[in-house]
């Protein structure tokens, strides 16, 4: 039952990480950035299935069943450790990916294409504007083509209905850059997932010890030694 509950928890974590990364996949170069989350989902599915096997083997105290269960737990433990290591690696790569791709996405902005929609969503959700700050918009093709000396309305502070995005009124704009906000957000999500993976890996370790104890336990034969005087 504990393993099935852990499977449900891992499924939630994996789904949460995938959903978060998919929202900002335009700013990530590495297609394997979701690999740790995929491993988590696969481990959760396998855990849910073998939880039933573990219950049956434990109740019957079958050494063969417990041995098989121990081997499966060991495989899952290795997979979780791999996901933890990959999560640590890609956590460091997030910063490089965001820095390398965000400027190119800003350059493609024209207010109509798919990149524009994603970029507006990013600035609205993270309350940011530009790569490093709102002045980065002045070097984009969109800014020069409009000639309005303004930034997209998605840069406006939340709750300001009369904001026009004009650079003459910077107090109405979000001044923080999106690169730093996106980096910290994605790294926080991945760090959260890594902590959960580590916690479940520790549970697996103690689970393997428990199975070893049950497997090595001496069976009671039901006979008592008879001593003669």
Automatic annotation (TrEMBL):
<keyword id="KW-1133">Transmembrane helix</keyword>
<dbReference type="InterPro" id="IPR000301">
    <property type="entry name" value="Tetraspanin_animals"/>
</dbReference>
<keyword id="KW-0472">Membrane</keyword>
<dbReference type="Pfam" id="PF00335">
    <property type="entry name" value="Tetraspanin"/>
</dbReference>
<feature type="transmembrane region" description="Helical">
    <location>
        <begin position="66"/>
        <end position="90"/>
    </location>
</feature>
<keyword id="KW-0812">Transmembrane</keyword>
<comment type="function">
    <text>Regulates the proliferation and migration of oligodendrocytes, a process essential for normal myelination and repair.</text>
</comment>
<dbReference type="InterPro" id="IPR008952">
    <property type="entry name" value="Tetraspanin_EC2_sf"/>
</dbReference>
<dbReference type="InterPro" id="IPR018499">
    <property type="entry name" value="Tetraspanin/Peripherin"/>
</dbReference>
<feature type="transmembrane region" description="Helical">
    <location>
        <begin position="192"/>
        <end position="216"/>
    </location>
</feature>
<feature type="transmembrane region" description="Helical">
    <location>
        <begin position="33"/>
        <end position="59"/>
    </location>
</feature>
<comment type="similarity">
    <text>Belongs to the tetraspanin (TM4SF) family.</text>
</comment>
<keyword id="KW-0325">Glycoprotein</keyword>
<protein>
    <recommendedName>
        <fullName>Tetraspanin</fullName>
    </recommendedName>
</protein>
<comment type="subunit">
    <text>Interacts with claudin-11/CLDN11 and integrins.</text>
</comment>
<dbReference type="GO" id="GO:0005886">
    <property type="term" value="C:plasma membrane"/>
</dbReference>
